[in-house]
């Protein structure tokens, strides 16, 4: 069976050996940078930077394409919404819809930014073990005064890690539900309005059941939401500081373009 997207792929590359906090901070910086650049030159530079990181990770491109494929319809929708509903100079006319040059510019930039976010997130999850991500997030959040909010850094990191782990499982369940409904005679093309509840209701029921089973499994194993020891003893090495320093320099260079 095909591996779900946003899943960890074991390896021994340079990115695999970096501290998870380094990679988390890098993805946060690159995500902010993706929405800060205002021209196609900066966006193109970020794509070049991604391909450079992908080559360093020694992972096949299909790992990253799997992360983008489920969001294609959503990105087409936001592109068309920007194209037809942004005021500006119209370059064509389709009945009452008039696509504008400004809408085309905004649509392409917005779609490119979403693709960059998905690619950098896939790069993080594919090169970092989920338990290491949890440990890295917990260590980064530990200095914050989260006790005033009634939550600990360990609980917050655990919730974020569970969300990341459940995302590929959610889309895998969508595919299974679609296949099951198609086997029962449901045509998703001819009956789009009838297929939505036929897909959403069993999907929601399955997600709730998975959440209940996970809660019971965690409770039976004695989970109490307090900080525990970890199999990952994190320690920032010289290569981590060098990687962050180089990334900051690259970010400043891209912003200056």
Automatic annotation (TrEMBL):
Name the domain of life.
Archaea
- What residue ranges are annotated as transmembrane? 24-53, 73-98, 110-128, 148-171
InterPro entries the record matches: ABC/ECF_trnsptr_transmembrane
Q: Where is the signal peptide?
A: none
Q: Name one Pfam family in it.
A: CbiQ
Localization annotation: Membrane
Keyword Transmembrane belongs to the record: yes
What keywords are assigned to this protein?
A: Membrane, Transmembrane, Transmembrane helix
Record's bilayer topology term? Multi-pass membrane protein
Protein name, per record:
Energy-coupling factor transporter transmembrane protein EcfT
Instruction: State the organism's lineage.
Output: Archaea, Methanobacteriati, Methanobacteriota, Stenosarchaea group, Methanomicrobia
